Fold each of these.
Amino acid sequence: MPALAVLVYLFLYAPLLVLVAFSFNSGRLASSWEGFTLAWYAQALADERMQASLRNSLAVALATTAISTAIGTAAAMGLRRAGRARAGWDAFLALPILVPEVVLGASLVLLFAAIGLRLGMATVILAHVGFSISYATVVVRARAAGLDPTLEEAAMDLGASPLRAFFAVTLPALAPGILAAALLVFALSIDDYVVTSFVAGVGATTLPVHIYSMVKSGVSPAINAVSTLLLLSTSLLLFAAWALEQGARMRVALAPAVLGIAILAAPFAASRGPVASADRVLNVYIWSNYIAPETLRQLEQRHGVRVNLDLYDTNEAMLAKVQSGNVDYDVICPSSYAIQVLIAQGMLRPLDLSALPHLANVDPAFLDRAYDRGNRYSVPYFWGARALRIAAVGLAPWIRGPRCGTRASSAASSCSTMPARPSAPR
C-alpha cells in the first residue's frame, strides 16, 4: 500500500516537478535537457505584457477570494438554519458548478451588455465571484456540519451576544474550512480561462488568456518560470497556514508567509507607471506577439498616449466579444475574413486615409483587397502563408506523385478602427 500511495502522489505531482525543472532548462523545448539557466526568469521579469497579465490575474484572484469567501461563509451559516427550504437552496447552489463554463461565460456577456456594464476588470471579478461562491459555500458548509451547536449556545448562556458568540466561538472553529475555501477559490480564479475570455475587456487580460493567445506564435518557457514562482508562493503560504493549525508559534509561520506574499507582490512593485494622462488612451485588441514592446514604448513617448494592449487567441473569440457591443477598443487587428464580417455588420468606422501618408509606401499587391475595396476600413499589417500537409495514403486514387503533398493558402491580418464612442479619445 505505501508503494501504491507513492505512485499516486507521483502521478499527481510529476507534472509540477517537470514544470519546475524545465523552468531552468536553457533550451526552449521540453523534450530534452540542454543545461541550467536562469534566463527564463530574467525574461519573465522583463516581459511587460506577461507582468501586466500576472498582475491582473493576482488582483482578480485576491478580490474574488475575499468576496467569495465572505459570502460563502455567510451562506453556509445561513443554510444551517434553512429548514425545509434547504433542498431548493442546495439545487440553486449547485447550478454554477454544474453549468458548462462556455454557457456561463456567454450568458454573463449578455447580462453585462443588457445592463450596460462595459467589459473590464470589474466584469471579470463579478464573473469569478459568481461561479466561486458555490465552491466556497460547499467547503465551509462541510466544516460547519461538524460543529457542535451547543458551544455557541453555551457562550450566549454565559452572556455573550449572538455576534460575539459567532466571532469568539464559531468563527475560530470554522477557520480551517474558511482557509480551505479561500485557497480553492484563489486556485479556481487564477486558473480560469473560459469564462475570463468572454468577460475580459480593456486592460483585463489575465495570465491564462495571455498564455492561450501565445499558442499562435509559440509559448515561451518564461511561462514555466512564472508558474514556478506562483507555485512557490502558494506553497509557502500553505506551509504557514499548516504551521499555525498545528499550534506553531507565530514567528515560525511568519517567515514563509512574508516570503510568499512578497513573491505575489513583486509584479505590482515592478510595474511601470503610465506615460500619459488617462485622457490620452489607445485601446488595441490584437493577436499575441504581433507588436513588439519597444514599438509600443516609442509610440507612447512620441505621441504622449498610453496604450492598453489586449490579446485574443482566435478570430472567433474576438468576433464574439466585439459583437457583444460593450467593449471599448479603438483599434482591432483581425484576419481578413473577420474584417468582412465586421464590415457587413457595420461595426467598423471608415478610416481617414488623409491621416495615413505612409500608406502610399505599402506594396500595392497588399492594398485594395477583395475583403475591403479601397481600404475604407482597414490597412494591411501582417501577411503570411500557411500550408497543410496531407498524407496521400488511403485517399482517392486520383492523388498522384509523392506520398505527401502540400496545400498552401495565404493569411492576412489588418488593423481596423472601431466606431466612435462618447467616451473615446479624439
Amino acid sequence: MSLESAPYSAGQSTYLAIDNVDVKTLTDSLDSARESAKSLTKQVEAFQKDGTDVATQLAQDRLRAKKEAQVKQRLAIHKALAEYRQRKLISQEEYTLKVEFLRQFKNVALGEKEWAEILKIKNELEKLEKEEKQKYDGDLKNIRRAQLMCLLVAGWIAWAIVWGDK
C-alpha cells in the first residue's frame, strides 16, 4: 500500500492519499473477511444444531428405554402372577389328591406312609426330567459346536479355492 503525504488547503496539515488499487485491494480483503465470518458463523450454527439434534435424540432414546423398562416390568409382574396362579393350582390339586388318597385308608398312618411313597416317586420323576433336559441341552451344545466347526472348515476351503495359491 502506498501512502503519500500531500499538503492540505490550510497549508500546514497533511492528509494521507491512498491509491485506487490499494483501496480496491482493501475492500476486497474486507469483503473476503466478511464472507469468511459469515461462513464461520454458519458452521458454528450447524455444529450447535447438530449438538442439539444429538441431545434431543439421546433424550428420546432414554425416554423410550424408560418406557420399555416399564413395559417389561409390567410383563414380568403378569408372568409372575400367572406363575403364582399355576403353582397355587398345582398345590391345590396335590392337596385334593392327597385328601382323596388318604380317604381310601382307614389307618391314617398307613395312608401317610403310602402318600410319602407317592411323593418319592414324584420327586424321582422330576429328577429324571431334569437330567433328560440337561442331557438334551448338552447334546444341543455339541451339535452347535459341530455346526460351527463345519462352517469354519467350509470357510477355510472356500478361501483356499479362491485365494489359496495366489
Amino acid sequence: MNTIPVEKRKAITVDQKKFAEDLEVYSNRLTTIQEIKKEVKKYIPKFKFNNDFFSDILNNFYSGLLHKYKKENTLNLRAEKLAELLEFDLRKLKELVANYDKLKDVKSPTIENYTTYTETPEQLTRFEQCEKLINTIYEVEESTGVKAYPFDVTKAFRRILDFNIRTNKFQANTYWVKTGRQI
C-alpha cells in the first residue's frame, strides 16, 4: 500500500466534539493545579513549587509544612499532627489532590490527533472527487438559486457524501474515502 508524503495529505474530517471534550478535561487539570497551588500558598505563603511537587502532593506539602514550622515544632510532631494542632482544614486540599490524581495523566490535546487524513493516492483521489462534487453542488445552488436539500443529495450519492448538521455543509464520507466501500 503506497502512502503519500505528509505535506500532500489532506484532512478528511476533524472530530471537533471529541477535541472540545478532551480540551475541557485538560482545562480542568490546569484549573486543579492552580487551585492546589493556591491552597498550599494559603498555609505556606512562601512555598516554592518544583517539578517534583506534583508527583506526591500531600507528602511534599507536609515536608514544606515541617520545614516552615521547624522552630515551632519542638516536640518533633508528624506533619499531619502539626497541621491538626495549627487547626489547618486540609479537606479542600485533599479533595483537590484526589481530583488531580484522576487527571494527572491527561495531556494537552492537539487538533492533529483528532483529524483523519488521506494516506494513500487512492484515498486522495476519492477525497478530491468528493471535493469536486461538493463544489459543483454549491456552484449550482449559487448560479440557479435552487437549494439542494441535504437528504436528497446524500441519498442520491449513496453515502459518498455526508451532511454535517453542526456546520450546515456537505463533507466527504470518511468511511468511503478511507475504504472505497459504502456503508
